[in-house]
Design goal:
By secondary structure, this protein is α+β, with helices and mostly antiparallel strands. Helices cover about 20% and strands about 40% of the residues. The protein has 2 helices and 9 strands; from the N terminus they run ββββββββαβα. Strands 1, 2, 3, 4, 5, 6, 7, 8 and 9 form a 9-stranded mixed sheet that branches.
Length: about 160
Amino acid sequence: MAPRQRWKLKRYGRVVPGSREEGGMQPWEVFEANGGKPEIVLTIVEPGYMLVLQGQESLDTIPLLCGSDFLRVHQKSDNLMFRVTVEGESRMIRMQFEGSCRAEAVKECSSAVDKLTEYMPVTTQDQAPPSHNQPPADVSAPGTQVAHLTIQYKKLLYCKQH
């Protein structure tokens, strides 16, 4: 039996290219599958494309065969974070997986990671404990998580160089 290649998402966010908020941060455009809106689905199709659809609308199409120089993927709990770099310009994308509970959402995310690793490496991070004012079911804003990931990555690079 072939591995499943379709997963429901609770939330999908992407940085809005070319725009800036106060303080220089790029704003996030967030899509959610609630309030009567169509479900958001991540699909991986052969010959190596990742599609994100909400109902009949395509939110994103990303080629997976371009390699890890073009696309970097990181899993944290029930989230996948992507950095796509094309012609020197980077985009960030975040997907939060659907599940009846957090453990099921993490399992769904891990299933998608299994499929993505057929195309490229995916880094993972053990689930970090929530901060003292954040219950386990809540998830911080996408920009905060990606910024935190970027800072951690830069620290790692610095430590390896020195």
